[in-house]
């Protein structure tokens, strides 16, 4: 059913959704990789499309930036549109010598400085993690296609311009690979609603040495991640979640 943020009707959205942050990247994926594409949403320019990728129905929809935005859109997809699986794709900043520009990170878990989990009234600190089936499928596909992918923890932050100069170093000291801004909310929504989620990233910036990709390099460098997410979605659907 339509929501305040999504005009899709029941059945318009596939069971698995690829979710970039950028609406124009959602459009790029639909235009470049999907057949028989139908746009189901453009409210607030958060574009959503459903199409066919190698004989499997897959949707792609933007999440916007930050955990509040991801929290809204992923919750509605899971709760009101019967979506089972969301694969977040996006950029991240490296804070580890294990990953550098253009590398892909598969987030097995996501630490966070966000207060998102407070709503659940948990008697402790919650650790949001990926669905292992999706994670394992993505990792196996990365090996099959020769795409270098590092599995590890990331941190989802609410702050892009952080006033604490030691912020990245502190997380790096705990073995965290990269910083991004959405995955903790996605993983918590999936857990609370008994759904499945995975986040994968292309490293666009090295926050330790200041190197970064240009706008053009980001677009080119994201294609491996997009293909990996689509193949993961396809095989996960064919295998019935195995």
TrEMBL record:
Source species, domain of life: Bacteria
Keyword Glycosyltransferase among UniProt keywords: yes
Enzyme class: transferase
InterPro entries with a match to the protein in the record: DeoD-type, Nucleoside_phosphorylase_d, Nucleoside_phosphorylase_sf
UniProt entry tagged with the keyword Glycosyltransferase: yes
Gene Ontology molecular function terms on file: purine-nucleoside phosphorylase activity
Enzyme Commission number: 2.4.2.1
Boundaries of every Nucleoside phosphorylase domain copy: 16-223
Binding site for phosphate: 21, 25, 44, 88-91
NCBIfam families for the chain: deoD (TIGR00107), PRK05819.1 (NF004489)
Name of the featured protein: Purine nucleoside phosphorylase DeoD-type
Protein source organism: [Lactobacillus] rogosae
């Amino acid at each position: 059913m339509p929501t305040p943020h999504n005009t899709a009707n029941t059945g318009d959205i596939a069971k698995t959704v690829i979710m970039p942050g950028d609406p124009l990247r959602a459009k790029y994926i639909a235009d470049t990789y999907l057949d028989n594409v139908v746009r189901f949403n453009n409210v607030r320019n958060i574009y959503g499309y459903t199409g066919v990728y190698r004989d499997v129905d897959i949707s792609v929809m933007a999440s916007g930036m930050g955990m509040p935005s991801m929290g809204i859109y992923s919750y509605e997809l899971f709760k009101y549109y019967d979506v089972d699986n969301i694969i977040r794709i996006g950029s991240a900043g490296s804070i580890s010598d294990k990953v550098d520009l253009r590398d892909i990170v598969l987030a097995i878990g996501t630490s966070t400085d966000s207060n998102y989990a407070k709503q659940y009234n948990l008697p402790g600190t919650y650790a949001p993690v990926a669905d292992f089936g999706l994670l394992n499928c993505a990792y196996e596909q990365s090996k099959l296609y020769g795409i270098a992918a590092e599995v590890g923890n990331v941190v989802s932050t609410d702050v892009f311009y952080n006033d604490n100069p030691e912020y990245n170093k502190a997380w790096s000291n705990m073995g965290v690979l990269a910083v991004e801004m959405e995955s903790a909310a996605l993983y918590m929504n999936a857990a609370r609603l008994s759904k499945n989620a995975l986040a994968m990233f292309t490293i666009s910036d090295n926050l330790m040495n200041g190197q970064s990709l240009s706008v053009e390099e980001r677009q080119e460098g994201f294609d491996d991640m997009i293909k990996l997410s689509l193949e993961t979605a396809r095989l996960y659907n064919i295998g019935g979640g195995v």
